[in-house]
Specification:
globular, 8 strands, about 10% helix, mainly beta, six-stranded antiparallel β-barrel
Length: about 120
Amino acid sequence: MKTHKVKAFFAISSGDKPNRVLKRQFIHSEKSKGLWAEIRDLSQKELLSNASTEKQEVIYITIGYNPAVLEHWQDLIFIDEHGKYYRAKTKPDEFNYSKGDMRITAYAFEDNASYAEDIYADKSS
């Protein structure tokens, strides 16, 4: 059951050094405040089978089908309700390609970038 909201964005830069500016391009609207998601930790068995035994926190994020996730998955950064940052570890699993749910294996990291502006998608998500 999708009871959590996650924000999802990719960084875009404009300008040349030293005036380069980073912006966050969200794949959802500002009004929606994120994507509905189910978030859960990996089990010990899943951690071992995914070779995710490094010290990073690894989770599953399950969201509804979103083509922007597939288009930008390598650059996407997810922010959970607690302000923790995650990055996709592998291409999202589209389950049975019925455009239903997508499962993303993501790992926690610290985002120390400084963003000058937030840009949101036009349509509601």
